[in-house]
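I had to read the description of the data format several times before I understood it. For illustration, here is how one protein appears when written out as sequence plus structure tokens:
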Amino acid sequence: VQSYYAASMDLLRDEPPLNLFDPEWHILTREHNRPPTCIESGAHVRRSFITDGCSIAGTVEGSVLGPGVVVEPGAVVRDSVLLDDCLVRRDAIVERCIFDKRVRVGASAVVGLAEDGRANEEQPDVLGCGITLAGQGARIPAHQRVGTNCLIGMHVGPEDFQVRDLADGTALRGARSEHHPVR
């Protein structure tokens, strides 16, 4: 997790160790057939990679956004990697997170901000570096607070959150989630 995160952030440096824009080095990838990215008036984007089909109305700083990511007005995505079709609702904050595909963050939720920085209870060797993970299809409810070093399982939904503040280092797996250790 730490290596993946560090490599993603390295690509955003002023002089990255791997220049994705080198014309002599071709990137072979599957195209996504998405509309162009829309950066709305009032949006703020700094030092980030924004892929096709994204719609940005909030703030994105130091982040990598996969195809179809939506950041609504007032929302902030900072130092994070969000894969395909994630949605960050109005006034939510996402910081130092890695989200798998189709993660939904409710309005005014705060995800990835540390209280005490405690390592993850299930996987302290993997999630002790200040990164919060959310699995594919996870839905974080409006006004929810999720600390750092947290692991939100695949398909976790609002009904799985029993407390408004999920403490640093918590692992939350919903009733529909299967237990797959992070490697």
